[in-house]
Amino acid sequence: MASLNVGNLGEYLREQRRTAQLSLRQLAEAAGVSNPYLSQIERGLRKPSAEVLQQVAKALRISAETLYVRAGILDEKEQDELETRAVILADPSINERQKQVLLQIYDSFRKENAADAAAGQAAAGPDATPPSS
Asked: What pTM does this model have?
């Protein structure tokens, strides 16, 4: 799991709030959090929970997963997986059975690739550096 970088999160939230042309008070009200608390998050003084981040993301109309990555709650690989699943599930051109089959295939490929990577790492020895992706 990534380390918590609250300052980076706060800067990002402030940027998103300004892009959305919302005052701190307006965003706090829309997200259901107090104005001082949101201010502290933006200044990097508070570590918000995943629930608070989800409320703020909804109010800003941005991805909660993006905020989770910025806060160190979720790593980018996990975000990519969640986004892939969300796209499959949201596709109106395929039916529910087809969506489930696609997700099963996706999971099997991910497991196969993880097993291959683990086997390659084991063959390289314990001191080998894992490949970056």
From this structure: 0.57
Q: What is the rounded CA–CA span in Å between residue 55 and residue 112?
A: 36
Whose tokens are 């608390």? That residue is: 37
35's tokens: 């104005």
CA distance 7 to 9: 5
The tally of CA atoms less than 13 A away on the side-chain side of residue 94 is 13
C-alpha 35/C-alpha 25 separation (Å) is 5
Phi, psi of 84 (to 5 degrees): -60, -45
Q: Is there a contact between 99 and 90 (Cβ–Cβ < 8 Å)? A: no
Q: Locate tokens 């409320």: which residue?
A: 55
At 31-89, the pLDDT tens digits run 999 999 999 999 999 999 999 999 999 999 988 888 888 888 887 777 678 778 878 88
Higher pLDDT, residue 133 or 55: 55
The whole-angstrom distance between residue 66's C-alpha and the CA centroid of its chain comes to 4
Closest CA to 56 of 90, 26, 84: 26
Q: Residue 123's CB: how many other CB atoms inside 10 A?
A: 8
